[in-house]
Specification:
By secondary structure, this protein is an alpha/beta fold. It has nine helices and six strands. The protein has a six-stranded mixed beta sheet with strand order 1-6-5-2-3-4. The radius of gyration is 28 Å and the shape is elongated. One of its GO terms (biological process) is DNA replication, removal of RNA primer.
């Protein structure tokens, strides 16, 4: 059986950023008229500073769960879909459409190369439902435009209190560890005020690396202020070079940004 899941986008070429909410709602209502024999299931997941949750809404029922604090937004979206499918299986619904506002989730479900274990669980359960004769459709809906089911799922997952005991995936744990390491690194870097590079790069981030070796060498020397013009005095045991205009010690920073004469 195929390893990917296709999805529908009723908004077509209309986007949330350049379309009136009433247009998007009208398109959704037209879609529901066409698929009225399919039971709608709305899912959502989110993460805030103190809360991670997922929820789904179908047939007047709202089910929501509070998730582990290390769970990512993406994983919470997947969990909402997974538990919606479990609910549907128990209630033996045979025709339904699952709605989500997470395009990245739908793209991952459609991909045949994803390694995310939660995506694999959803795909496995999807195939299980198909083997039982279920007809399943997935559809993307824009968030916060007034689609009732989507709004209810969104509010419910943010207020979920029933904690779900479930191991977090490796990718989520790795992301949190990386964030912690970057935070600790930045804290230590903040103390290195005498470091030559600190004034140029007070906030740690990736440098541009798509340069040839020669450009990298030149750029690195400029960043740390170590050039032939400004540091030849050290090689020949001379006094530091000074600006011919104002007498300040000659530095890369002075030449590029401070010296009024070269502005």
């Amino acid at each position: 059986m195929e390893n990917s899941i296709s999805y529908i986008n009723t908004s077509g070429n209309f986007t949330k950023s350049d379309s009136n909410s009433s247009v998007l709602i009208s398109l959704f209502n037209q879609h529901r008229q066409f698929y009225q024999s399919y039971q709608p299931v709305f899912t959502d997941g989110s993460k805030s500073l103190n809360h991670v949750g997922c929820a789904f809404f179908t047939n007047g029922h709202i089910i929501s769960y509070k998730l582990h604090s290390l769970t990512s937004v993406f994983s919470s979206e997947i969990m909402a879909v997974y538990f919606a499918l479990k609910y549907i299986d128990v209630h033996e619904i045979r025709k339904f459409i699952l709605y989500t506002d997470s395009m990245s989730l739908l793209e991952s479900l459609r991909s045949s190369s994803t390694r995310n274990p939660l995506i694999k669980e959803v795909k496995d359960f999807y195939r299980h439902l198909l083997s039982k004769g279920a007809r399943i459709l997935f559809l993307w809906v824009p968030s916060h435009v007034g689609i009732t089911g989507n709004e209810l799922a969104d509010k419910s997952e943010k207020s979920a209190t029933e904690f779900l005991t479930r191991p977090i995936v490796y990718a989520d744990a790795r992301s949190v560890v990386n964030q912690w390491c970057r935070y600790q690194w930045q804290e230590k870097w903040n103390m290195e005020t005498n470091n030559k590079l600190h004034v140029t790069k007070p906030v740690l981030s990736h440098w541009v690396t798509k340069l040839n070796t020669r450009c990298d060498v030149v750029l690195t020397r400029l960043r740390i202020g170590h050039t032939r013009l400004t540091h030849k005095c050290l090689l020949f045991a001379e006094s530091p070079s000074t600006c011919s205009h104002y007498g300040d010690i000659l530095t890369v920073k002075h030449i590029l940004t401070d010296c009024v004469a070269v502005k």
